[in-house]
Amino acid sequence: MDYVRLGGSDLLVSRVTMGTMTFGRQNTLEEGVAQLNLAFDEYGVNCIDTAEMYPVPTEAGTQGLTDLAVAQFLKTRAREEVILCTKVSGRSDRITWLRGGNATTCVSAAQIRESVDASLARLGTGYVDLLQLHWPDRYTGTMFGSPDYDPSAAKAAPPPVPFEEQLAALQELVEAGKVRHVGLSNETPYGLMRFSQLAEQFPRLYPRIVACQNSYSLLVRKDWEAGCAEVCDKVGVGLLAYSPLGGGVLSAKYSAKPSPDTRPSRFQLFPGFQDRYLGSQCEAAVTEYKDIASRHGMSATTLALAWAYHNPKVASSIIGATTLEQLEEDLKAYDTRLSSDVMDEIADVYRRYQDPTKAYKKPKAP
């Protein structure tokens, strides 16, 4: 395993980060701990990513269970040996059970403080190494496969919490020793630039953004590479790439019928999640990537993960699995380096399928 400095921070993170969003839903807490033990002890992973709303799909009865698995794991480790990342949920009127039953979650100073205190209590630790805003408080029009930015929708959206208020609350937590560094997630170039500009302009008031956790894979590249990548390179922000397998689609497992004893997938548990991946040009792109992998003697999973793991635009790739066997395959893929011939073939497919998830158009109701 290799380690890199995360953005402008002092955090040395493994190039692979353990995602935990299945713990407490698709995985038991004990299975989650077993996965973390395997990743840390056998493969040198040192970074964990969780969130207050996990597991996903999130609901009142399971919210927070993921953190309990992470807490159990932390009890067996020296705290300074683990880089622990968590996230504050963004604005939503759907997660009504969070933060004392607020009708609408938002990234206000009060709700940031409440979220962090509750996360620390569940995790059984006094601090987190990285706190991220899970998604923007403002309307962006680009999250989770939604259509692109619409100025009229932005005008109709509720007024967002000011950037300054969010940063001031984050600085308060840093000064209190509850948070070491701060980051963003599902952000746009505008958000990355605005947060970074304010921190640069008022370094005594606001903390620097050191990381951004966005979707990035062979299927979801253009949004990051066309804008966010340049911003992060210039202002010192490291990419924590989530869904390097495109929600599992790049493993090509959804091209075959599951066996009767197969665990329910995220697509089955999360209605609507798969539309952007399966009802679009993604199917054609995945087939071509699978063919490349086959020609070069590797699995589709290994191809997709090796591409992400050793991508110079990525600080660390966040992976997740529902079985130890899946996790081992994912972690072993780190030892694969793609040849120039393979990279050329990938580039050829990308030229033809630059934005396949955006090609999906939901059928109109009759």
From TrEMBL:
Domain NADP-dependent oxidoreductase: 16-350
CDD domains, per database record: AKR_Tas-like
Database matches in Pfam families: Aldo_ket_red
Sorted UniProt keywords: Oxidoreductase
PANTHER family given in the database record: NAD(P)-LINKED OXIDOREDUCTASE SUPERFAMILY PROTEIN (PTHR43364:SF4), NADH-SPECIFIC METHYLGLYOXAL REDUCTASE-RELATED (PTHR43364)
Name the UniProt record assigns to this protein: NADP-dependent oxidoreductase domain-containing protein
Organism: Tetraparma gracilis
